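Bug #77: duplicate submission created two jobs. Keeping one. Sequence:
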Amino acid sequence: MNAIIRLAEKRDVRGILEIYTPFILDTSVTFEEEVPSEESFWERMQGIMAELPYLVCEIDGRIAGYAYASGYRSRASYRWSKEVSVYVHPDFQRRKVGHALYTSLNEMVRYQGIADLLAIITMPNEPSVSFHENFGYVKCGEFSKVGYKLNQWQNVGWFELFLQDENKPPKDRILPLKEIVDLPVFKDAIQKGLDKLKL
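Kept job's structure:
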């Protein structure tokens, strides 16, 4: 099998939405309720990649999964914290696609200067909780009845992973994505993710 981890491109939108749509329509994993158009979704992706990685894992020409970091809150002192998300196509479960994508993503954002990653999980969701805890995330809180979907109130758990030295101040400047894509650290991050794949 031929596997690639790379930055998402416009041609990937259809494959990404193929993965994401069932989560929108049939689950409370995401609180999004309507499937976005391909054009609006690409605009969303471009907005993220102005600063942060949006990665896809492609196996034999198919989008097997994707992961990205995005802004947490807009006030200045939150800028070192980002939310993360990962989704895997059902055909590629149990091949460590999610683990591979998170490995690459973490390496990239750590180098950029991001300090804290936040994963937000609709509860209960034991597979996602186990996945994140195995990756080093620690539950730091839970909101009760914070969203309403599928005809019931939903609880949301918050899990965090701190990437930097908590005894040191953060970098003054977070490096934008465009400043790291041509550096060896970017290629190293990709390879570290690929090394986790189970093909």
